[in-house]
Amino acid sequence: MTVELSTSEPSPEALLQSYIDRLDAKNRKLALSVRAAVRKRFPTANELAYDYKSFCVIGYSPTDHGIDSIVAIAARTTGVFLYFSQGPQLPDPNKLLRGSGKQVRFVQLESASRLSHPDVEALIAATVDQARIPLPPTGKGSLIIMSNGAKRKSRSKSAV
Predict the structure, then answer these.
(1) 126/122 Cα distance (integer angstroms)
(2) Residue 52 contacts by C-beta under 8 Å, 6 or more apart in sequence?
(3) In which element (H, E) is residue 49 found?
(4) Has this prediction a pTM greater than 0.85?
């Protein structure tokens, strides 16, 4: 009997799970529940996963380009954050948005239920309205691994 070893790469879901598994138990649980809630809110969006070794980001995009993401989840050791594209242009009468970037702003999430708070929902609706490319009205988005820390090549300085 011959045993074949699998040489296939891990599935995108397994890779994303490995990124999230690096977090402590509290933030891991929070990241997974926020992901499930955002996925439910944006079923037609592609999930674009980025590995940054100490944290991961999942963008929700109508395309396979991160720049088109409408919102993104950043799961860090310091917590879980929801980033809004076009953040500086969003109406934020209750001053929930944090950050000073030119393109995005964020809110920290203590629980997935915070996504359904009227003020946060208003921010989500506003960022959807301002999206450069609208989400498809039907279909199901895919999980796309945009970067994998294990596959990154080390950068070396070239000799002059």
Answers:
(1) 6
(2) 147, 149
(3) strand 46-51
(4) yes
What is the length of the chain? 160
Q: Where are the domains of the chain?
A: 12-144
Q: How far apart are the first and last CA of the chain?
A: 55
Long-range contact list for 90-99, CB < 8 A, 24+ apart? 90/123, 90/126, 90/127, 90/130, 91/122, 91/126, 92/123, 94/119, 96/120, 96/123, 97/123
Per-residue pLDDT of the chain (160 residues; tens, 9 = 90+): 555 555 678 999 999 999 999 999 999 999 999 999 999 999 999 999 999 988 999 999 999 999 999 999 999 999 999 999 989 999 999 999 999 989 999 999 999 999 999 999 999 999 999 999 999 999 999 999 998 655 544 444 444 4
